[in-house]
Inverse folding.
């Protein structure tokens, strides 16, 4: 089967580019002597997960309990659920633990820490908990110097829970526009993580896991002393936004959406494709960068830049309107012609699909890999 045989829109993954991106991150992290815990919220695929942990410590990160169930069922036994836990979800975590998985959960709230320990006793387990530290993103987590850090640790010192360490995430590295800025964020991330860990140890609490990371900081951080593991996810596929901030090159983007030409407006130098907002997502993250890629950059069937800088200028629910600065060759774009769209944000684009059609540099489908979706 070849790409031209597939219904559109559908998700295409280039295995060679994926392997390249995995190797780049592995080498970047390994030079610091810390473990890599791949975040599988982007890939959501056991096949890709196995590739990502090959030669690494083996632990993975997930963002939903659906992912945790799926990866545990597929043999992944060291799982960090990196979204703040709510007590109502603890029974499901306990079931995963009973099945043999080590599941680490996170909190930044003393009352929740108390509830975790209480439910651990009631359920007959001891939950492994990391305290989430805010290193500057201003999303989840508490500052490294917050009094709540020690309050949470005391709550987790009771039966039913184990304080396993701290975690932080430098999502604000996405706002950086040069390497020096990324490196500065990475150092601030490291300092926040290590400061929190040292405060815990100074009060007699063990802190074996010091977990940090984002794709930009994991790739470009220059010093990870005191950190035990780095987490990253979008690096596996890369995307247009990550290309803008230096995390990958355009030619390393492994993910694309295969689409068909469904309309032509040659007098306006535009054409329509059957990939719109639901197929591509409405992420416009490159809008704030030097190169606004619209809703995605358009390539030919083999992923080549045959149409210059053609991009999806507008995205309705099922329609994408493609335009280019230079004249388009409409003779090569008949109704039904196939094109591939590189995504702004691979995580959100991939979320619309239940499988990857895997190629290896050409148009032959060499594998089909399923994804897990939902919560």
């Amino acid at each position: 089967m070849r790409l031209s045989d597939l219904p559109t829109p559908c998700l295409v993954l280039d295995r060679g580019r994926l392997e390249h991106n995995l190797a780049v991150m592995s080498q970047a992290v390994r030079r610091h002597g810390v473990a890599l815990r791949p975040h599988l919220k982007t890939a959501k695929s056991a096949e890709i997960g196995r590739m990502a942990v090959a030669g690494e410590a083996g632990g993975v990160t997930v963002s939903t309990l659906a992912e945790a169930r799926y990866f545990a069922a597929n043999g992944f036994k060291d799982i960090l659920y990196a979204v703040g836990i709510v007590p109502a979800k603890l029974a499901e975590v306990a079931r995963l633990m009973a099945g043999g998985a080590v599941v680490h959960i996170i909190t930044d709230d003393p009352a929740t820490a108390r509830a975790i320990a209480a439910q651990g006793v009631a359920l007959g387990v001891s939950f492994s908990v990391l305290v989430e530290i805010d290193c500057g993103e201003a999303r989840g987590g508490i500052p490294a110097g917050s009094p709540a850090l020690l309050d949470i640790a005391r709550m987790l010192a009771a039966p039913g829970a184990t304080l396993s360490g701290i975690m932080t995430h430098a999502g604000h590295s996405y706002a950086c526009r040069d390497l020096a800025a990324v490196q500065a964020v990475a150092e601030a991330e490291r300092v926040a993580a290590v400061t929190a860990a040292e405060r815990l140890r100074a009060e007699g609490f063990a802190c074996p896991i010091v977990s940090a990371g984002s794709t930009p900081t994991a790739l470009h951080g220059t010093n990870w002393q005191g950190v035990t593991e780095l987490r990253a996810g979008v690096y596996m596929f890369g995307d247009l936004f990550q290309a803008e901030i230096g995390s990958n090159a355009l030619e390393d983007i492994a993910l694309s959406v295969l689409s068909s030409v469904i309309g032509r407006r040659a007098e306006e130098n535009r054409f329509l494709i059957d990939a719109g907002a639901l197929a591509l997502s409405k992420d416009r993250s490159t809008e704030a960068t030097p190169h606004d890629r619209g809703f995605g950059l358009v390539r030919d069937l083999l992923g080549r830049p045959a149409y210059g800088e053609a991009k999806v200028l507008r995205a309705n629910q099922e329609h994408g309107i493609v335009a280019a600065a230079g004249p388009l060759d409409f003779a090569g774009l008949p109704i039904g012609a196939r094109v591939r769209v590189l995504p702004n944000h691979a995580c959100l684009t991939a979320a619309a699909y239940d499988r990857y059609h895997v190629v290896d540099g050409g148009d032959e489908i060499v594998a089909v890999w399923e994804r897990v979706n939902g919560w």
In short: The chain has a mean pLDDT of 97. The domain at 32-237 is CATH 3.20.20.10 (TIM Barrel).
